[in-house]
Write a structure and sequence with these properties.
The longest helix is centred in the C-terminal third of the chain and has 30 residues. The radius of gyration is 21 Å and the shape is globular. It has ten helices and no strands. The protein is mainly alpha-helical.
């Protein structure tokens, strides 16, 4: 099973052999690490062949630890690429906020930037290899959109963007804590159930958008500013947290199985998509709870 996030299009680290986090985790009595169990075995041999603890890891069901090797993805690579991608989003947002006052023109630029960012994200999602230029380009245009959107919310609900940033950080930190503590186990069943809920959620929102556009659902329908809108917003944030757990598992398994170094860009791309999703939903939620409509 491949990992995904809110656009349901991000590729996993093992495109041709399934998602390592769900399909390749070694099990006691299972296949030898580096052959069927390791999605990267055919790319550069078995990186665990010289690991004297491989059998012990298999016996206890623990994931193997990839030896230090040039060209293999590390946590430092993921952190650095994520910082670059998220930093680009922030810079784009700050510039848009500072240079584009709230107006019909800025709204048009924001919508155009969002469309360009969506196209770039989709192109990258269907490519077999990570393309840093596409990912950074997506981040830049997404930043412009978020900058205008944040300024718009701030003009109506003062301080909403700051609260949304804090909320996004809180959700991310709490999800990471729960994941690392082992309270959530990312299994194939967990992913299937979560993806089913997420896809159904997006389909319902798409139908709601059409109903609102044709005047069938007044006041935003499910996206109203009342209690129903708040419930939908909270559910959307929980779905974002679900995608974060998939991202964390994918990164963890990618490092353990010796994913190529360039795959760190995919990790950064996926995290950025998920964090943008959570931030936008958090903005809406802050506005609803502010109650200054």
């Amino acid at each position: 099973m491949r990992s995904s996030n809110p656009v349901f299009s991000r590729r996993g680290f093992s495109r041709d052999n399934g998602y390592a986090g769900f399909n390749a985790a070694p099990q006691a009595g299972g296949p030898a690490v580096g052959t069927q169990g390791n999605p990267y075995a055919q790319q550069g041999g078995n990186p665990y062949a010289q690991n004297p603890y491989a059998e012990q890891n298999l016996q206890y069901g623990a994931p193997p630890q990839a030896p230090a090797s040039a060209g293999r993805m590390t946590m430092d690579d993921v952190v650095m690429r994520s910082a670059m991608t998220l930093g680009t989003v922030v810079v784009g947002a700050v510039l848009a906020w500072a240079l584009l006052p709230v107006s019909s023109t800025s709204y048009g630029l924001a919508i155009g930037s969002a469309l360009v960012a969506f196209v770039l994200a989709m192109v990258q999602s269907f490519k077999r290899k990570a393309t840093p230029a596409l990912i950074i380009g997506y981040a830049a245009f997404e930043g412009v959109f978020l900058g205008v959107l944040s300024e718009m919310y701030n003009s109506q609900w003062s301080g909403a963007p700051f609260q949304a940033v804090l909320g996004t950080m809180a959700v991310t930190g709490a999800t990471l804590l729960v994941y690392k503590a082992g309270w959530i186990r990312v299994t194939a069943r967990y992913a299937r159930i979560g993806m089913t809920i997420a896809i159904a959620f997006v389909v319902v929102l798409a139908v709601n958008l059409l109903l609102v556009a044709f005047g069938v659902a007044p006041d935003g329908g499910l996206r109203s500013s009342g209690p129903l809108g708040a419930i939908v917003g909270i559910l959307a944030i929980l779905i974002g947290a679900f995608f974060l757990t998939l991202d964390f598992k994918q990164i963890e398994d990618g490092i353990a199985y010796g994913a190529p170094k360039d795959e760190a860009w995919l990790a950064a791309f996926g995290l950025t998509l998920t964090l943008v999703w959570i931030y936008v939903e958090m903005l809406r939620l802050v506005a609803i709870f502010s109650g200054d409509d």
